[in-house]
Amino acid sequence: MRxxxxxxxxxxxxxxxxxxxxxxxxxxxxxxxxxxxTPIAQAGYSTPVNYQLQCAGCHLGDGTGSKVNDTxxxxxxxxxFLKVEGGREFLVRVPGMSQSALNDAQLADxxxxxxxxxxxxxxSMPAHYQPYSADEVARLRKVSMLNLPDTRAHLIEQMRALGxxxxxxxxxxx
Length: 174
Ligand code: HEC
Prior knowledge:
- The protein contains 9 helices and no strands.
- By secondary structure, it is mainly α.
- It has a domain at 44-161: Cytochrome Bc1 Complex, Chain D, domain 2, CATH 1.10.760.10.
- The longest helix is centred in the first third of the chain and has 17 residues, at 2-18.
- Heme C (HEC) is lined by residues 54-55, 57-59, 70-72, 74, 78, 91, 94-97, 100, 110, 148, 152, 168.
């Protein structure tokens, strides 16, 4: 009986003895890789590179998005948000934008890069475009959007009222 108890106790304790913290706090950098990483906000990459690093994982390289992942299509559609009231603010406040690791100036550059007739927004761009400034982005991104689906649904409704085709890859659902 005693042997059985000892055997059982050892079997139960063995995984604890083998367990270790992952990542190992005592782990050393790989040789040649000791320098700390530069945060993207200070790295000075070009805007297309920032898009690849911060957005393309979900939105894909050309902005097609993915319905199965609830990621709307930006290509040839995202410019429509500028045609409806509240859309300009919405574009900065979506979490992928406002909570990205990019600084305000980089985010303004990224928006101005996406929102071009020869860029991702393509044919969806309004006739007159007022570029975003770093100050505007700084002001807007501080205010969080409390109800994204309702806010978006309201914007899409306004687009419909203007006769805009809802080619957002989501069948117009939020
Ligand atoms: C982790 C995945 C992910 C990342 C990374 C991401 N997004 Fe998004 N994005 C989404 C999803 C999902 C939505 C739909 C709304 C929501 O749930 O946030 C969205 C919505 C948007 C919208 C609103 C489009 C619409 O039709 O409603 C814009 C604009 C946008 N993202 C731009 C960006 C940009 C620019 C970046 C990079 C700085 C980025 N996103 C990073 C997943 C992501």
